[in-house]
Structure to design on (450 residues):
């Protein structure tokens, strides 16, 4: 029944019977009118929101999307690319969540609550390790969702993963100037830039489908390694159980520090959720997390869990960095988590992003001759896919042709230190499923034109 309702609303939008901005009835009202359960209506609204046909703002109801492109007719059949200049523009830069899905009304309620309820009132000065209430809330979340045995005193609130990395790098550089730090290749350039800015020497270490090459970390003779075990960026590899054990063994043998960037851990779609590396042994792992992918990268809110031996030094490094998220926002997030809002939001976004990923993969499959969707690895989680290009393709030329066709994509070489086979990194976090076919058609055209 929810599929019939979804189809009926979709058709009404396509035929213009429901125009941009049109307010739909509440799920309760429509369910009563149709004589069905609210679940049926909610399912239809969630599906159409994920497809980009509807926009749901907490507190202001569900409306037909304002963006006329989203409401445009279906993408060209069979992937045919029309010769007109692109009417749509698809921004597939990876790493960007859909900030239009930010739970604004719930967030504002939390902020209002902490600013007006005397039981929550923020301290005048920000405590250096973060608001105690948030440290406890994050600790409870990490125990429950990431399997890390911590309490509030173990958690330091940061402005995000890069801020945590800057603190780690400063501490490492103060004990051994120009110490080597293994970084994933390919990997997110920001963390290695932060390490280098603190005076450390980044050493690229290759990544394969099982994650970072731990033997190569051993051979590199480094003091630390930075890696993303839950979902490596951009390969999408999940660090295998053997390599997790080997990495921890390397750290306890050499006294090396493992910096765990818990990237994309919340958005795992296939298979069981995978616990954090810090859950297997905290003695050598600095665990870094943030809300940059789950809520909004502009909030600048994250956390760091130091190994006991580095706790004092890392706390001092964060405290003297002169940066920290606003205390009202820290408490608003604590309230959001404690009231169940964060889990609800994660469930909703997991579902939305999974639909977007599936739409893009299906569309790539339909245009498979050019982009080899069968070879797309690391797609069980996250907000992007890394799509191999035919051998010999010129990534930059493909990206240039795509830009001319209205698609912004990033070449894999943006994230590599040593050369790798050509590929594109495509973020689907903001790609409505209704546009996926259009994007895949553009991609096929950009490849065949070359
Ligand atoms: C691999 C990786 N880790 C972590 C982050 C989050 O960084 P931050 O919390 O500093 O926003 C990003 C953001 O793009 C990223 O690409």
């Amino acid at each position: 029944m929810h599929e019939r309702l979804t189809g009926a609303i979709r058709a009404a939008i396509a035929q213009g019977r429901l125009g941009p901005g049109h307010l739909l009835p509440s799920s309760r009202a429509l369910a009563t009118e149709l004589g069905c359960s609210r679940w049926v209506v909610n399912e239809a609204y969630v599906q159409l929101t994920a497809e980009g046909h509807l926009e749901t703002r907490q507190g202001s109801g569900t409306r037909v999307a304002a963006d006329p492109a989203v409401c445009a007719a279906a993408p060209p059949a069979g992937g045919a690319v029309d010769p007109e200049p692109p009417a749509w523009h698809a921004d597939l830069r990876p790493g960007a969540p859909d900030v239009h899905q930010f739970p604004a009304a719930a967030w504002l309620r939390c902020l209002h609550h902490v600013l007006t309820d005397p039981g929550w009132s923020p301290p005048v000065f920000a405590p250096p390790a973060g608001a105690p209430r948030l440290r406890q809330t994050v600790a409870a979340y990490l125990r429950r969702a990431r399997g890390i045995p911590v309490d509030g005193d173990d958690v330091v609130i940061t402005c995000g993963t890069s801020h945590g990395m800057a603190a780690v790098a400063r501490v490492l550089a103060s004990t051994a100037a120009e110490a080597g730090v293994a970084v994933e290749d390919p990997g997110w350039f920001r963390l290695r830039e932060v390490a280098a800015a603190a005076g450390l020497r980044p050493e690229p270490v290759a990544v394969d489908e099982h994650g970072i090459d731990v033997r190569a970390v051993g051979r590199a003779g480094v003091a630390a390694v930075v890696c993303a075990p839950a979902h490596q960026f951009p390969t999408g590899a999940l660090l295998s159980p053997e390599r997790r054990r080997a990495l921890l063994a390397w750290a306890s043998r050499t006294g090396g520090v493992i910096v765990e960037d818990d990237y994309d851990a919340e958005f795992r779609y296939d298979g069981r959720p995978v616990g954090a590396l810090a859950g297997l042994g905290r003695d050598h792992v600095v665990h870094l997390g943030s809300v940059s992918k789950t809520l909004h990268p502009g909030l600048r809110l994250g956390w760091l869990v130091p190994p006991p031996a580095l706790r004092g030094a890392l706390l001092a490094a964060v405290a003297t960095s002169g940066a920290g998220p606003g205390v009202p926002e820290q408490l608003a997030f604590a309230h959001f988590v404690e009231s169940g809002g964060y889990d609800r939001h994660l469930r909703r976004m997991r579902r939305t992003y999974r639909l977007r990923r599936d739409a893009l993969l299906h569309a790539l499959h339909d245009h498979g001759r050019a982009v080899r969707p069968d070879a797309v690895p690391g797609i069980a989680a996250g907000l992007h896919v890394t799509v191999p290009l035919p051998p010999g393709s010129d990534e930059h030329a493909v990206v240039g042709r795509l830009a001319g066709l209205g698609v912004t994509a990033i070449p894999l070489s943006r994230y590599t230190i040593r050369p790798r086979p050509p590929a594109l990194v495509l973020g689907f976090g903001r790609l409505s499923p209704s546009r996926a076919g259009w994007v895949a058609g553009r991609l096929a055209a950009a490849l065949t034109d070359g």
User: Anything to note?
Assistant: The longest helix spans residues 341-366. The first strand starts at residue 54 and ends at 57.
